[in-house]
């Protein structure tokens, strides 16, 4: 069926949204990064006036960015109180790992014949090792996120990349609540390299088993530490 003039006219009226939406998405990218870095920790209220002034954007643009990040489960809007960085429930952390296991292991299982393009994984492993040498455990955490994003990137799927970007951003909300990043991240430096070397050797099945064990152990460790930390925080 041909598009009607009325339909095209309605679409033309949306032209003004393009610039605004693009700006809102860029603002959301900035805030997402700041949340991931812990600049805005879980539970913190985001002040519209201060953030809008700092970024030089309108209130409407900022609210659209907040809406996008609320949809990604990074923010939560509380009626008559404002917008806050979300505090995950323990069940959220468990579900994040369930999703990671489904997606990441499927990516490795679905790889074709070697050799694989491992430059991103290699760079992330080296980044983490250098950060550990400086005792920069937040840097190790960031490098670990880069490793898993590069791993998922081996699928060559923009949709999967987008899914995991949100999942891993949510995961960092839990990391920021647990106050011992060294405990959380140091054990996985060697395991990241083991997965990399298995893939470099073309041992896809071995890499998948290493990854599944890695994620199961990481989940158990983080859930225990997170549950204790949340229990220690006064209501």
Which SSEs are present, and which pair or pack?
Blueprint: H1 5-13, H2 15-37, E1 45-46, H3 48-55, H4 59-71, E2 75-78, E3 82-85, H5 90-109, H6 119-133, H7 137-153, H8 158-177, H9 181-185, H10 187-200, H11 204-232
Antiparallel strand pairs: 1-3, 2-3
Helix pairs in contact: 2-4, 2-8, 5-8, 5-11, 6-7, 6-10, 7-8, 10-11
Short synopsis of the structure:
The protein is mainly alpha-helical. The chain has eleven helices and three strands.
Shape: globular
Largest sheet report: 3 strands, antiparallel
- What is the mean pLDDT? 88
The count of helical stretches stands at 11
In N-to-C order, the SSE pattern is HHEHHEEHHHHHHH
How many strands appear in the DSSP assignment?
3
3D structure, described in words:
It is a single chain. Helix 5 runs antiparallel to helix 8 and helix 6 (119-133) packs antiparallel against helix 10. With 235 residues, the protein is mainly α. It is 74% helix and 4% strand. Strands 1-3-2 form a three-stranded antiparallel sheet. The N and C termini lie far apart (58 Å). It is built from eleven helices and three strands; from the N terminus they run ααβααββααααααα.
